[in-house]
Design goal:
- This protein has 679 residues and is α+β, with helices and mostly antiparallel strands.
- It has 20 helices and 22 strands.
- Strand 13 and strand 14 form a beta hairpin.
- It is elongated, with a radius of gyration of 39 Å.
- It starts with a helix and ends with a strand.
Length: 679
């Protein structure tokens, strides 16, 4: 008897070992699906909040999730409802499988599926069938193989990332974002129960389309949590009263232009950590939409806010809306090359202060002046005569700043722009000229924010950057004293109507033809730049930076922080003196070559110009003089032909035809000359 029993036992062990070996070969030979998870590219703000995400290649929202960042209540409810022996079985739960077969035989229909979470993961990885036996057998085989290759935590991670939640939503993060507008780290019992129920029938239970079905499925999960000892009866009763979300929220799309830029810079990177502040970005995007609403359908806007100590970009608004409209909202105007108008003038004055050419109290001339063939005019066509340099900057006068630029040199001005981080572009291949000071150069909004960040940073350029951990200190462009003097002048600018008088240091600008309007300002910690215009470069008739962009700048600063951070006190070496107490060379501006040039009030030959060929036909020559003090004396080839003329226009009888050296002398003894040819 004992020998027979031993024989039976030996046969059973042999059969078991043979079956086990066959099972091992069957499972080991499984053709495994790809276990990698293709997740959405994410762009995060400085606090780790999601600014924007991109769908995966098949158009699905699948946001990568770490199980440690999922509410443990959800995973407890999931296991209790779907696979209570998940942490004990090897991929297939024989008890659940036998129960499912028995229930199907008894009821004549499928009552429970018997699938484990591992089997569901196998189906999700292959997007395989659920109701056919060959599909179920394939799931069993892959599930057993998965359990041999992965830990339970890794299998749970696959489920959390691949479970379907209706439409193009996959994974729990996409679901909580779409249905609850939040991350899955903290969920209510009602929310967790809905997320447990949805993957079983994601389309027929979609809460945004079938709220009643979704609610019934959620309530079934909640009821079972009491018997599973996961939730208390009181908690379930409260959760049953929670409404089911009936709308699907859009995925975050803040800083869309900057997000596109970051992804284009590093297309292989899955997560991009930017320096932007998501809350500030949202406030400024709302401001941008409001700012253009009353200015027609084509006006665009761009705004950049920096921390001018670190160079970090805190907000970047490329348009009033990221869409294809008449404003060309898809175009990132923070990077478009535009004319800066008068916003480069503070740099010119700062360089003049550093060169010892001028001081804020220096007197300078604002009179019609010709610089060779270049004859700039003030924007309003009027002239103020002699005034302080500080007033010339505050009033944004053109003649004084061109005079300073001539003394400094346009090439040096361009070099200072480059040291400030401004990649200024000149038209064609022409060398820089005096017109650079008045906006005759191409710049971007982000570069101009960096230029004013240099002023706010005591004259040292900042490394403007939008990625966390990047940046660094830049070159010194101005001395701390010159930068403070410029900031002090700009802080005394009157604010726009109805704006707070908060001594924001700011400058406005309007480019030629009213194509660009600007307002850029800084306080003790931040700088903001606002540009408004049309993306196609066409004029905006009647638009001025002071009227259009400046109010938006002040509104932007009110959204950056409740109150301005004070500007710093003057550096110890700052020369704080009235004009009368200044050293003699600083009391009145004179160019470096002033000793070799006529004074600013000297007469100028208005007609005929130097080198003119004039056909008089034997009649007297009509001549005109501008500037200078009458009476005037006219000479031809050194001989006086008219003495003591009280008027600026006269008729001269000259020998001719032939070449004539014409001269005019005013009452102060100053002269102007022209070489002409009479015919």
């Amino acid at each position: 008897m004992k020998r027979a029993a031993a024989l039976v036992l030996a046969i059973c062990l042999t059969l078991f070992e043979t079956g086990q070996a066959a099972l091992d070969r069957w499972v080991g030979g499984a053709d495994m699906p790809d276990l990698t998870i293709d997740s959405a590219v994410e762009v995060l703000d400085r606090h780790g909040a999601l600014l924007r995400a991109y769908t995966v290649d098949d158009g699905r929202w699948r946001l990568a999730v770490d199980p440690a960042r999922v509410d443990p209540m959800f995973t407890d409810m999931l296991v209790a409802y779907e696979d209570k022996r998940f942490y004990r079985h090897a991929g297939v739960d024989p008890v659940a499988m036998l129960r499912a077969v028995g229930q199907a035989a008894w009821n004549g229909r499928v009552v429970s599926g018997g699938s484990t979470l591992t089997m569901q993961v196998a189906r999700l990885l292959e997007d395989g069938p659920t109701g056919r036996w060959d599909g179920k057998l394939r799931q069993i085989r892959v599930a057993l193989a998965l359990e041999r290759q992965l830990s339970k935590a890794e299998i749970m991670t696959l489920y959390l990332n691949r479970a379907p939640y209706g439409g193009n939503l996959e994974g729990i993060r996409a679901a909580t974002r779409a249905y609850f507008g939040k991350e899955p780290a903290r969920l209510t019992p009602a929310q967790a129960a809905l997320l447990v129920a949805l993957p079983q029938s994601p389309e027929s239970r979609r809460p945004d389309r079938h709220a009643a079905r979704a609610g019934r499925a959620r309530d079934t999960v909640l009821d079972r949590m009491v018997t599973a000892d996961v939730l208390s009866p009181d908690t379930v009763q409260a959760a049953l009263r929670d409404p089911v979300p009936s709308l699907r929220a859009a995925m975050p799309s803040l800083a869309a232009h900057m997000a596109d830029r970051a992804v284009a810079e590093a297309p292989a990177q899955g997560v991009h950590h930017l320096t932007l502040d998501g809350d500030l970005q949202a406030r400024l995007e709302a401001l941008a939409a409001t700012a253009v609403a009353d200015h027609g359908a084509r006006l665009s806007i761009a705004m950049v806010v920096l921390d001018h100590q670190s160079g970090e970009v805190l907000a970047s608004v490329g348009s009033a809306g990221y869409r294809a409209d008449q404003r060309r909202g898809f175009v990132d105007m923070t990077r478009a090359v535009r004319s800066p108008g008068s916003t480069l003038k503070p740099l010119v004055y700062g360089m003049a202060f550093d060169d010892g050419l001028a001081h804020p109290e220096t007197m300078i001339e604002d009179r019609p002046t010709r610089f060779g063939t270049y004859a700039p005019e003030n924007f309003d066509g009027a002239y103020r005569g002699t005034l302080r340099v500080s007033e010339a900057l505050k009033q944004s006068l053109n003649i004084p700043v061109v005079s300073l630029t001539q003394a400094i040199g346009p090439a040096r001005l361009m070099a200072s722009l480059r040291r400030s981080g401004v990649a200024a572009k000149l038209p064609g291949q022409a060398p820089p000229g005096l017109a650079v000071a008045l906006g005759g150069v191409g710049v971007t909004v982000e570069d101009m924010a960096g230029l004013y960040a240099m002023l706010g940073n005591g004259g040292r350029a900042v490394g403007v950057h939008h990625r966390m951990g990047a940046g660094g200190s830049g070159a010194r462009v101005l001395s701390p004293e010159a930068a403070w003097q410029v900031g002090h002048i700009l802080s005394s600018m009157p604010p726009p109507p109805n704006a707070p008088r908060n001594r924001l240091a700011y400058k406005t600008g309007t480019s030629y033809g009213h194509r660009d309007t600007w307002a850029i300002g800084f306080d003790g910690g931040h700088v903001a730049a606002v540009w408004m215009g049309r993306a196609d470069g066409t004029p905006v008739p009647g638009a001025f930076g002071a009227d259009v962009a400046a109010p938006v700048l002040f509104e932007a600063f009110s959204r950056v922080k409740p109150a301005l951070q004070p500007l710093p006190v003057p550096p110890p070496a700052t020369l704080l003196l009235a004009n009368a107490a200044l050293p003699q060379p600083l009391r009145v501006f004179r160019p470096r070559n002033a000793v070799f040039t006529a004074p600013s009030d000297a007469p100028q030959m208005a007609f005929p110009p130097d080198g003119a060929v004039v056909a008089t036909g034997g009649a007297p020559l009509v001549v005109r003089v501008s500037e200078g003090l009458p009476p005037f004396t006219w000479l031809a080839n050194g001989t006086p032909v008219l003495v003591g003329s009280p008027t600026r226009q006269a008729e001269l009888i000259l020998p001719g035809p032939g070449h004539v050296s014409l001269a005019v002398i005013d009452a102060n003894g100053h002269a102007a000359r022209a070489q002409i040819e009479l015919q």
